[in-house]
Design goal:
This protein has about 375 residues and is an alpha+beta fold. It contains 4 helices and 23 strands. Strands 1, 2, 17, 18, 19, 20, 21, 22 and 23 form a 9-stranded mixed sheet that branches. It has a 6-stranded antiparallel β-barrel with strand order 3-12-15-14-13-16. The protein has a 4-stranded antiparallel sheet with strand order 4-11-9-6, with no helix packed on it.
Length: about 375
């Protein structure tokens, strides 16, 4: 029994000595070094705030090429999708029946001209005979009426001749505008109808330069633009001098420049938006802008003013409010709520919460928290060139 007690006490003593030795020789875990982050300085620049909208390209002119006379489609003189100039020949409808009609109308004019000459001669003789009382006034009046009837007949025949000429011209269908052709709706040999209201559509053609882009700002935005115009900070959109810029789905930087040339006369009660149109040049040979394309279009949303700018990467979200981590003089992190504005020049405008010259963390936000010290790498923010 005494041996067991002795062994137990020895084991306890050995454990105590081991624990004391560990406590004496060991040390607390080393502290982690300050987190490495990247910081950008808050900048202040003169900018114009731009409002962006989705838009849709549409042709300035679009024509449905239709037959104006009936007949067999004799020939087609364009390729599907080709560019054509105004006046280029597109289709030929068999002209022979209309040429025959014109020949008949010309003959009718000649016949009516001969009858008029005969009636004029008869009237001249009747006037001489009436002066010598050789014929009655009734006979002279009858010859006068015959001449007037012959004059009316020649006017009618000349009108028929003119209509026959027009119908013959209509058998050769030319491009009414310069632009790009669609596909042909019929092939050669088909019968086309030229009757009004039932005319056959043969193809479509759209103009390419210039080109429209339609978009729809909401009511609040339109009220803002009107306020800017009243204050003299911006031209009225209806004046045709407000600039607008456009980019396609594969473009950046809004490379296409234009002006607003149309504002609709009423707000759509269903959507609360107003239809607005910009016009853009679309020169040859590329004609990059095509009718039907979707695009991003932007218009000035403010006068030129001084604004505070930061990168979007620096902005965090906390239960619906926006914040940034700001570095103080000791490289300590401070939590700061801010109020954002629209993008500008590749950065984000800040309405409230920051001052020019302060430094905000842009990389490493997930590794820091307010009140900790960091090792910052200070770099200049990337600012896009342009307006």
């Amino acid at each position: 029994m005494s041996n067991i007690r002795f062994r137990t006490l020895a084991a306890i003593g050995f454990a105590g000595l081991l624990f004391a030795g560990c406590k004496k020789n060991g040390s607390a875990p080393p502290q982690r070094p300050p987190a490495a982050v990247t910081a950008n300085q808050v900048v202040q620049r003169e900018i114009i705030e731009w409002d962006e909208y989705p838009g849709r390209m549409e042709a300035v002119d679009m024509v449905e090429v239709r037959a104006r006379v009936s007949g067999y489609l004799q020939s087609i003189h364009f390729k599907d999708g080709a560019q054509v100039k105004k006046g280029d020949l597109l289709f030929v409808i068999d002209p022979r029946p209309y040429q025959a009609e014109l020949d008949r109308a010309v003959a009718d004019v000649n016949q009516a001209q001969t009858k008029l000459e005969l009636a004029s001669n008869d009237l001249a003789r009747a006037e001489r005979l009436l002066a010598s009382k050789a014929i009655s006034e009734e006979e002279a009046d009858s010859r006068n009426k015959a001449k007037r009837q012959a004059e009316a007949a020649i006017q009618s025949s000349r009108a028929s001749e003119q209509m026959a000429k027009l119908n013959l011209e209509y058998t050769h269908i030319t491009a009414p505008i310069s632009g790009r052709m669609g596909r042909k709706m019929l092939t050669e040999g088909n019968l086309v109808n030229g009757n009004q209201g039932q005319s056959t559509m043969l193809a479509t053609i759209v103009s390419l330069d210039p080109i429209y882009c339609y978009f729809e700002p909401d009511e609040r935005a339109m009220l803002k633009y009107q306020q800017l115009a009243r204050e003299g900070k911006q031209q009225s959109m209806r004046a045709g001098q407000v600039p607008c810029e456009l980019e396609l789905a594969n473009e950046t930087g809004f490379p296409h420049k234009g002006v607003l040339d149309f504002v609709d006369n009423r707000v759509d009660s269903g959507t609360g938006t107003l239809r607005v149109r910009g016009v853009f040049s679309n020169p040859e040979p590329d004609h990059i802008l095509q009718p039907g394309y979707f695009a991003r279009v932007r218009v000035p949303g403010s006068a030129r003013h001084s604004a505070v700018l930061i990168p979007d990467q620096a902005v965090g979200t906390d239960q619906g409010q926006k914040f940034v981590y700001v570095l103080n003089d000791q490289d300590m992190v401070e939590y700061r709520t801010i109020k954002l504005g629209p993008p500008a020049e590749g950065l984000r405008t800040v309405r409230e919460g920051l001052k020019p010259g302060e430094w905000v963390v842009v990389n490493g936000l997930m590794t820091i928290r307010p009140g900790v010290k960091v090792t910052p790498q200070r770099v200049a923010p990337t600012v896009a060139t342009g307006r």
